[in-house]
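haha ok so turns out i had the wrong file open the whole time. this is the CORRECT one, sorry everyone. sequence first:
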Amino acid sequence: MTERKHKEQLISYQAHYDALTNIPNRFLALDRLAQLVVTAKRNNEKIAGLFIDLDEF
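then structure:
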């Protein structure tokens, strides 16, 4: 069971982080943004976001 759990964690990490830089990828950023929107609506707050796209990086 431990090996299975480790493999699941590895797959999740690879799905959410860039392989070259090990920083969160767009998929993870959009997931976190969705969580922030839900929390902001619940608390009657506002949020702001900035997205920068670097072409040919």
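The chain has two helices and no strands.
again sry for the mixup
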